[in-house]
Amino acid sequence: MGLLIVAIFVICAILFENFRQPLMIIFLIPISFIGLFLIFSLFDFYFDQGGYAAFVMLGGLAVNAGIFILNDFNNRGGNNQNRRILKSIAGKSIPILLTVLSTCFGLIPFLIEGQNEIFWFSLAIGTIGSLVFSMLGVFWILPVMMWKKVTQTHPHK
């Protein structure tokens, strides 16, 4: 897992040409892991190798959406940073949601056999729960981390 985080950081640092934005991307990983832990604990599912495989899979899937948004943000012109953030999120929300939904629907056949196929069931349920929860990080926490506080100056009388 550590190697995955280091690799993501290095690739994002090269892509974004700074060190702050890759940290935002890395921060999305624990948020998606919260969803993985919640789904297993709330519904009392058995956690095994499939759950561990879901960790690795989520390392790539959760950061993918953040990379889309930050890359679009960096490529947009304009002086108003907060407006660029909102436009980037609005512009990338449909592709991100379609990616998440298609992944979740693609994993549904592994849920049909239920807990008889423990590895595949754990992988599917962990990935689905995490992807749904990671949307909270991508569409709410990431913009908050990117948001720039606007200070208004009042002229002296």
From TrEMBL:
UniProt keyword annotations, A-Z: Membrane, Transmembrane, Transmembrane helix
Gene Ontology molecular function terms on file: xenobiotic transmembrane transporter activity
Domain of life, source organism: Bacteria
Pfam families, alphabetized: ACR_tran
GO CC, alphabetical: plasma membrane
Keyword Transferase on entry: no
InterPro entries: Acrflvin-R (IPR001036)
PANTHER family according to UniProt: PTHR32063, SWARMING MOTILITY PROTEIN SWRC (PTHR32063:SF0)
Official protein name in the record: Uncharacterized protein
Lineage per the UniProt record: Bacteria, Pseudomonadati, Bacteroidota, Cytophagia, Cytophagales
